Amino acid sequence: PRVVFSGIQPTGVPHLGNYVGALRQWVNLQHEEKPSTKLIYSIVDLHAITVPQKPEVLKQRKREVLAALLAIGLDPERCTIFYQSSVPAHSELMWILACTASVGYLSRMTQWKSKLSLDSSSTLDQGPVGSRLKLGLFSYPVLQAADILVHRATHVPVGHDQQQHLEFARECVTNFNHAYGNHLVPPSTIISPAQRIMSLTDPTSKMSKSHKAQRSRILITDTPEDIRSKIGSALTDSTPGVSYDPAARPGFSNLLEIYSVFDAEKRSPAQLAEIYAHTSPKIFKETVSDALIAGLHGIRDRYLDLSANESYLEKIEKEGARKAQESAQETMDIVKSAVGL
Ligand code: TYM
Question: What is the pTM of this model?
């Protein structure tokens, strides 16, 4: 049986990168997959605490992400939508996987290495020995593997930046199955056809929640005025005309990518570049804004309505937790018996 699983961190209302890279696929799969395919989407609050969080803020952000997922069109009747921490089996399987996962593999992962190189209390040749970095951050990929494997997911729709984590999840399957027999299912990645969405203020780095500048990202609940203003001030370059060349012209190329995703005629970034080759940056940006505003239309209003409806959100939370616990329990029974627990 096909099982789709994916997750998003509760960092507040998702940005355009999350939407284009992953969430839009989550919604589309509701129609593309047969009704027999289980669709399971998690708001990964246990991953969120790998960096310091204020408890009240975290609670609020989880709610925001839940309301946003419903606002983009995820149907709680069709999908299981739940908070990771409401299903203890995720943490339990993580521990079991940790006992066959290799430290060497984890320490070579790019996200960890980039955190390590930013950490002044450790040096690269010293490795993590002197580091203040947390064990939870190091083992982040093991928890992510557990998320996927505990639901026996066959397909995981994510953006480009999650590929290495998915490879690690497959590695966990190999290690576990080698030790205990063929019990876990290796998941395939469904990568978004669109490129990574880049920051509007620094188009050589990806659009992210952690970037300081608010103007670097578009939230899917931004007003049309916000969108126009952020796209209008997006960093481009002073070469005349519009062309698609991600290496030489990252700013324009990113706007072309965004335009292409929301283009009603589904033209590619390169095709759009030809059409707008001689257009001024100002007019081009207005055209991109129009397409984006049309593409996100309705999300903001639905989000505001849902956010005000606490009792409805609570009901969805409870129902999601119940369905996800049930799904995870099947795997835990198999795994525990295989391990002898
Ligand atoms: P997170 O919360 O950072 O991002 C959620 C999804 O959005 C995609 N994404 C992007 N895609 C294109 N361009 C961008 N600029 C961009 N920024 C983010 C991400 O690829 C992701 O698909 N570790 C995961 C959460 C997670 C998970 C899982 C995912 C935990 N367990 C199990 C899949 C399966 C993360 O931090 O995603």
Answer: 0.95
